[in-house]
Design brief:
Layout: H1 2-27, H2 34-66, E1 82-88, H3 94-110, E2 116-122, H4 127-138, H5 142-147, E3 148-152, H6 159-170, E4 177-182, E5 186-187, H7 189-201, E6 205-210, E7 213-214, H8 220-244, E8 255-258, H9 259-265, H10 281-290, E9 294-298, E10 304-306, H11 312-327, H12 340-372, H13 380-394, H14 396-407, H15 409-414, H16 418-451, H17 470-492, H18 496-510, H19 512-518, H20 522-530, H21 537-541, H22 543-551
Parallel strand pairs: 1-2, 1-4, 2-3, 6-9, 7-10
Antiparallel strand pairs: 4-8, 5-10, 6-8
Length: 552
């Protein structure tokens, strides 16, 4: 693994250095100004993450293209008792029970010898939601009551991590493996057996994390988002697995863990100010690795799903919760018992969000340079080369994931053919360019608020499709629109070439209010579905869903 990690580090350094060199070529004519220096600082701050994207993309693409066809081995007959733990807080329990019963039935059919018990781990606090949960559990028949149990805490100290550890301390006796699911998680029995077989075959492994993709969605935002994320995460996970090996990431759900070492080594400390850690999963994985246990990712997308947020407010809210949690990792690098790769996982999680303020610096610096530099003309050609290199590296995992599908007939067939897949790819690319500008500004605002002393919580999540009206969209994106107008006007001062170059950076800000509304509009979702745009394999295979989405 050392040689592979050297290759990845070298790629990141080369990409970052190359981008900085290209920017210097763009900025050199006319001499250096304060605005140009701000641009340089901004791009330099984003370059490490951009280099990592290309490094993971190239290694993941090569790993997937070079591997032969794989098939799951028959499940072992001596699997130890399994508990399926589903965490929820102020969320509907009825659909969770439906999915859990279905998984129980399927596992019992395939592996009748396997002892499997489900547990609902509730942190629900709202009185109405508590009553609904209790009513749901009371409605279970005798068979389901034996195989699905319910436990609700009176408080949610430690958030989800505290919920899980309290369960392991007091209710997990007799179980060796635990399948972790969120309220929106769905797994096939084959995927569960895939994880159990990996964990059983390698006694060194503490966690086996399955790659997770989005369930079919009728709402436009999750529909378009998951189409691109699926391609990118498939390549990203394969790349990480190639060079991280058994020191991989853990995402907290759709994963199986070995209970004894997790309970012994993955107990989270409090932050220096006494608060609980929000984003628990990467810390738990780092602590396990530091104790000598492996964490491995199964870079296979079949049989493991989650639901994505239905509209932009929920989507940004989830991103900002992750941001607040990941930035807390800066306090944890000196935790005893962690090794270098564990600390790298924490740093990587920080880098995922820390580049947003630097992106903002680059944008503001570029706008300032365009508005104030009256000496030199806008360097369209070198600026275009820089932009294509930057975007190509940043989106490399997704672009290479698209290329993988286009190159392999069996992949194209799963998406309904190359033409249909290309329509989804083009629609998702436009969506991403618009969304990313909005997301970067929202993350920058959140980081500034956290730096000023704001505290982030972990509010319950809405997973139900809904519309977004003008008032809500304006409240959410009014600042984005105002910033977009000011910045675009600054670029226009340098002529139409500069305005054209800035359009992908600023366009999402200019249309952020209608974007929030349209991407939550079910009518637009039905339009996309009728034309087969951004369809995923599960949707194509599930004709019932396709008919329901068209007629809803």
């Amino acid at each position: 693994m050392i040689a592979r990690r050297v290759v990845i580090a070298g790629t990141v350094i080369c990409v970052a250095s190359g981008l900085i060199w290209l920017l210097c070529l763009v900025l050199a004519p006319g001499g250096w100004t304060l605005a140009k220096l701000v641009m340089l600082v901004g791009l330099t701050g984003t370059a490490p993450w951009t280099g990592l994207c290309l490094a993971n993309g190239l290694s993941g693409f090569a790993a997937r293209m070079l591997r032969g066809a794989t098939a799951d081995a028959p499940p072992p007959t001596d699997l130890p008792p399994l508990v399926i733990a589903v965490t929820l807080r102020d969320e509907a329990l009825a659909p969770v029970l439906v999915a859990l019963r279905r998984l129980h039935d399927a596992l019992a059919t395939i592996c009748p010898y396997w002892t499997v018990t489900g547990f609902i781990l509730s942190d629900t606090a709202a009185p109405g939601a508590i009553a609904d949960e209790e009513a749901c559990m009371a409605s279970l028949n005798q068979t389901d009551r034996r195989r699905i149990r319910y436990r609700r805490r009176s408080d949610n100290f430690g958030f989800k991590a505290g919920n899980i550890m309290e369960f392991l301390d007091h209710h997990a006796e007799g179980f060796e493996f635990m399948l972790m699911l969120d309220a929106d998680s769905v797994m096939s029995p084959d995927a569960v057996l895939r994880l159990a077989s990996r964990l059983q075959a390698d006694p060194h492994l503490g966690i086996v994390q399955h790659l997770t993709v989005g369930v079919p969605a009728a709402s436009p935002l999750p529909r378009l988002f998951q189409f691109g994320m699926r391609a990118g995460m498939r390549i990203w996970a394969a790349g990480q697995d190639w060079w991280q090996g058994d020191a991989g990431p853990y995402w907290g759900h759709n994963a199986m863990l070995r209970i004894a070492p997790f309970r012994a080594h993955a107990r989270l400390p409090l932050l220096p100010d006494g608060r609980s850690i929000l984003s628990h999963d990467q810390v738990e994985a780092a602590l396990l690795c530091g104790a000598g246990w492996g964490v491995r990712v199964v870079a296979d997308e079949d049989g493991s799903w989650e639901a994505f947020p239905p509209a932009l407010p929920e989507h940004l809210g989830r991103e900002l919760r992750w941001l607040a949690g990941n930035l807390q990792y800066r306090h944890l690098f000196r935790l005893p018992g962690m090794h270098a790769m564990g600390r790298w996982q924490l740093l990587q999680a920080i880098l995922l969000f820390a580049g947003a303020p630097f992106w903002m610096l680059f944008l503001l610096g570029a706008a300032g340079a365009a508005a104030t530099d009256h000496v030199s003309t806008f360097p369209m050609t070198p600026a275009l080369v820089l932009t294509l290199a930057w975007a190509g590296a940043l989106y490399a995992p997704k672009l290479l994931g698209y290329l993988e599908v286009l190159l392999l007939h069996e992949h194209r067939a799963r998406y309904g053919g190359g033409a249909r897949f290309m329509r989804g790819m083009l629609a998702e690319t436009v969506f991403t360019l618009l969304y990313d500008a909005i997301g970067q500004v929202s993350k920058t605002i959140a980081i500034v608020r956290l730096a000023c002393g704001a505290h982030a919580g972990w509010a319950p999540q809405n997973r139900t499709d809904r519309g977004v009206g003008w008032r809500e969209a304006t409240r959410l994106c009014g600042a984005h629109t105002a910033l977009g107008l000011v910045v675009f006007a600054a670029f226009a001062c340098a002529g139409w070439h500069a305005a054209l170059w800035a359009a992908p950076l600023v366009g999402g800000l200019l249309v952020s209010i209608p974007f929030a509304m349209i991407t939550a509009d079910r009518r637009f979702g039905r339009w996309l579905q009728r034309r087969g745009i951004a369809m995923i394999p599960e949707e194509i295979e599930d004709e019932a869903f396709s008919r329901a989405a068209v007629t809803a």
